[in-house]
Structure formats: structure tokens, C-alpha cells
Amino acid sequence: MTRFGRRRESLAELAREAADAALDEAGRPDVDHCFFGLQSPSELAGDANAASMLASALGLVPAAATRVESAPSSGASALEAAWFAVRSGDVRTALVVGAESMTRVPTPVVSRVLAKTMDARERALGLTMPAYGALAARRYLWRYGYSREDLAAVPVKAHAHGARHPRAHFAKEVSVEDVLASPMIADPLRTFDCAPVSDGAAAVVLTADRGDVRVTSVGHATDAYAFSDRTYTDALTSFRATRVAAERAFARSTLTRADVDVLEVHDAFSVLEPMSLEDLGFFGTGTALRATLAGDTSLGGPLPVNAGGGLKARGHPVGATGVAQVVELVEQLTGRAGGRQVDGARVGLAQSVGGFGTNIVVTLLEVAA
Amino acid sequence: MTRFGRRRESLAELAREAADAALDEAGRPDVDHCFFGLQSPSELAGDANAASMLASALGLVPAAATRVESAPSSGASALEAAWFAVRSGDVRTALVVGAESMTRVPTPVVSRVLAKTMDARERALGLTMPAYGALAARRYLWRYGYSREDLAAVPVKAHAHGARHPRAHFAKEVSVEDVLASPMIADPLRTFDCAPVSDGAAAVVLTADRGDVRVTSVGHATDAYAFSDRTYTDALTSFRATRVAAERAFARSTLTRADVDVLEVHDAFSVLEPMSLEDLGFFGTGTALRATLAGDTSLGGPLPVNAGGGLKARGHPVGATGVAQVVELVEQLTGRAGGRQVDGARVGLAQSVGGFGTNIVVTLLEVAA
Hints:
2 copies of one chain form a homodimer.
Chain A: H1 11-25, E1 33-37, H2 41-45, H3 50-57, E2 64-69, H4 74-88, E3 93-100, H5 107-115, H6 120-124, H7 129-144, H8 148-151, H9 153-162, H10 176-181, E4 184-186, E5 189-190, E6 200-207, E7 213-222, H11 240-251, E8 262-264, H12 272-279, H13 288-293, H14 310-314, H15 318-333, E9 347-354, E10 359-367
Parallel strand pairs in A: 1-2, 1-3, 8-9
Antiparallel strand pairs in A: 3-6, 4-5, 7-10, 9-10
């Protein structure tokens, strides 16, 4: 994973930095197929043929190259596509690169592109992605008896973890007071409740040969694109697609939730972290924020969540995030996470969210037997 | 495949029309994973989360949904991704939909988006996709001793075939004189040498169960993104990525070129058809246009090419094209191609081109044994 943040480099330069590091670590295997997780390279980086462009920029021609996109879960979807390819027996070695260059274009352009990941009717009503997050936050706090201050525990923890990550966008601690004093984005969510706009890339080599870490399984599910079409109970504080994707991932493995030592979840907005932990089946409904307040999801606690700082502190170059989560888990499972190491971690789970709960990928990784 | 052409329907409506037809024909199986081949849904149809949007619009939630993109070979890449998924054993039934809505946005916007599929430096020099095609045409005609009039045989044949396809964008015959009298696009290419801008969708169901037609293999390769970086001989009249992709497809099968009964090749510009036929290994260098002039690649000839009218006459909704080629082959291999049927066709090959030879997918299909 490259350093995330405001980067001067182009999309291709960021992708190359991550890919070279991954390929070096893997011993420079011949790459049969590259899978690129990119959300909006045409609108954000000016290239509508990014798979070809990056295969060239990475020096991998004539390897096959495919771009995979599912909004902010593009990186996770690219890893899934590569996993299918390697398991099919047709591809021996796949390179997965998630990348996005966002800060070089004006913020209103970024906002306009990100807004297009929502149902057009709801967008026309004035809803934005932070507004969905705000509705969820308000409902979650009210429904389960939490205060606005309680919710600040999520970004405070993210920054405490991110402060130990040398490549994080924001490698610094913040206090509850900092969170509550930060500018309002969509009431009750403030700046420190929302993942930043970042540049960066992350890469993974998947191979049919034995490695240090195994992709145990991937689960993937969708939900109704328009939020207003979700008619199940507590749709605002629970994503059915997370529940189904997690069921699918576990069903394709022999692992149980009790086996999982470390989690990466998609905290694009603070409230999404406890929601996700509950939907993934690690905490009862409405209890994950209490566990976070008690320190149970912090480094040193029984179930560390977002040890790498999460989207909030590590940064959120949208296409890169799903791969960065997996890179974090690989570093954790191989004991190379330095000051943010989860001792003895052998099984990790990553959850990546595309859209407001519309497209969710859950990936299970474990130390290779 | 929907009717291609200028359609009033939205991207979702077009995709649904094709998907419903494919799913009905397959007996309405449960879909585990949808793969959508879409080139530029955000810029052309206003949606940057099209995989989720379409899974919802098609009534397939909570099936997994992934968008696959490789510029104009997006549809072929989506089919390849689905093929990997089904062969991996993790997905039993995949739905592949290629679709694009292009005519509802102003032509200058379409042109700007399509131009972004080229290397930025060459774009800055004033090159456009038709200009690359024109350079290739001029060189091919000069190098192998053909006249401009000879090249008209390609679109004349495409339209002769397309006139037999009830869902083609241009189901009408044209003469050599019509081609030579049509407006100049990029000298020597005229309007009738260039595939049109179209709306439409095509869909295929891939399943681990036995069907009428088998995807035998897929080969996929890239070439240098900047044309000026291609240093091999005759780079202007030969795409190395076609040669490598074809080698890979045949190497993954027990088929030989002699087994192939019907071909679909990516004739976005007339000259690409003979170039592709030579790179695929069916004709010697510089001879494919002669074979076309002799009628060898026409319906009734020994090796019918683009029996469905090709991109030129069938139309070219960019993301749909790679899937439409496969739909054409399936109709041919199952004897349902009506007035354009290739008698006794048992093996078909489709070649799809993303960018000016940068990303090429070759798919082999055969009647299931």
C-alpha cells in the first residue's frame, strides 16, 4: 500500500508504486492477468481505458487486464474477480491493484461523481451520501439509547490506530472534543465522522501457488438500489447485503465468527462501523457501539477492528480501499503490522461497501496452513 | 439481444429487456452473480454505481453484482469474468449483460468520452480513434496493394449480412458507391467505414450445468497503450494483442483454426476486419481483404465473418458489443439465426477490441457435446 493522502503522483504512478511493492514481495512472478479496482478513473483521472493504460504503465503487457468496478467496493470486487480467475485454473498468477486519484480534481467534481453512486430519484430529492449516513446515525443513536458523544468513540479509535500506521492519510490522534468541535457535514455527522477524500493505491498478488496467506472465501451480495425500496425492519441501521455477504463468505469456508481475530470494516461514516459489526454477526443489534466504548474493538481488546485506522484515518481513495483492507489483514496475519500488530492474528475479515449498503463484499483471509 | 439503434429506453430498461430474454430462455435459473459489461455508464447514463443499479432494476437482489470494464471490449471481459467465476466452482449461475445507452447524450459528449480511451499524449497530438483507424487503413491499402474501393467490400458485406438481422441498427444493404459517397470521417475512412453510435443490450446466462453451447475458452491480452510505444513490424496493420489472445484461447482448448465455422470480429472501422482475420491466423498477412472481395467471408462462403452484420451494421453500443457477438454465435451454433444462418456451424470465435488494439479478448464457443 502506498502512503495514502494528498499525493502529487498520477493514478498510474500510484498504481505502479503499489504494484511494484507487491510484485517485489512476491518474488516478481509472471503476471497472467491484472485486475484493477478503480471507481471513476475517467472522471477523476481523465482515462476511460484504465485497464490498458495501467497494464502498460506497470510494464505488464501482454498480460490480460480488466477493470472491475462496484463503486467504493471496487477494490474488493477486483480481488473477488481475481480469486475466481485463479480458482478457475485458467490464471496462475493475478495482480490486483486498487487505486484512485481524487485530490487533483476540484472537490465539487468529486462530489458530483460520488453522488452518482446513488439512486437517481433519491438524489433528486436532495439526498447525498453523507445525508444517508446522517439519517442512519440519528436513528442508530436514538434506537439504541446512545448520545452523539458516544458515536465519537469510533473516529477516536480510528485515529488512535491510524496514528500507528506510517502510511495513513491522518496518522494522528484526535479526542472526543475534537470530533464534536469539527465542522458539521450532515447533522449529526461532523468532519471527523466522515472518511476523507484521498489519493493512493494498494496491491496484492494472488497465485495458485502456496503463499503466506490464503484467501479463504469471498461473499458478495446486493440490496435494493433505492433506499426507499428496502422494506425490512430497521433498514436504516442494518444493511441486509452485509448480512447476506457474510453468510455467503462463512458458508464457503469452515471458519466461524469465533475464529476471526481481526476485522476491517467500511467506516466511510462513523455509524457504519457499529452497524457493520452487528450485521456481520460479531455483536448483537445495538451493542457494537457499547463494545467500542468499552475498548473491545481497540488494539489490545478482544476483537480489534480497523487496526489500520479504517477509512477514516488511513484515508479513502475509493478504488484502493477494498484492496488496502486486505493488505492490512495480510500484514496483520504475517506479523508485519508493527506498532498496530494484533498479536497472534491468524484469521481476518474485511467488509467493503459500495453505495449506501447496495453492494457489499466480505472477504475471509487466513494464515496458510 | 435487444434491437440495437436509437432507443428511447433507459440503460436499465435496455439491460432488463436483454436479461429477461436470456433468463426466460434459460428457464429462469437463480442467478448467483451478475456481471455487467458497461463502458461509461456514469458519463453516458448518469450512474456511477451501475452494477447495483442494474441488479435492482433486473430484480436480482441479493445476487452479487460486478461491473467489468475494458473500454469497447467490456462485454467480452464481463463474459470472461463470469466464465472464471463459474469455472471456479463458487458460482453456479452467472448472468452476463452488456449494455450501453449512448444516443441520449449529445454527440460531442460521446466523442469526448470515447477519446479518453486513448493514451493522453497521443490524444494531445490531435489523434482520435477514427484517425488511428485512418492511419491503419492507409497503410494496409498501400502495403498490400489494395484500392480504397476494395476496402468498401467490408461494410458492403456487413450491411448485406445486417439486412438479414431483424434487430440490427442498420438492417439495409449498401453499395460500394454508397460507401464511397458517404461523408469523410478521417481520410480515407468515410461514414460507412465506421461503426455507428448505438443504444442496446445483450445478455447471456453462464451455468455450471450443461447447456446447448459451451464456452470452450477465453484468451485475453494487452498491448502498449501508446501506439507510438509499439515497436514491432507493421504495428499499424497488425495488433499483437489479437495474436496473443488468439494463441491463448486456442492453447486452452483442443480446437484448431480449421474447426472454426463462423467468426465475429471487431470491425469498429472497416480496416480492422481484415487486420483481425490475419492476426487471428485465418488468413495470411495482407490477404484477408482479397478473400473478402472474393466472397470467402460472406454468408455462403467458406468462412462467414460477422454474419450478424458486425459492429458496422448491427450497431455498436460499446459495452453491449462483446456480448452481442457471443449472442450471435450462440444463435448460429443452435441453428436459430434465421436468414443469416451459417449451415452446420458447430464452432465459433469472437474477437473484441478495447482501445486501438490495447486490450483484446478472443472467445471460443462450441456446440455442447
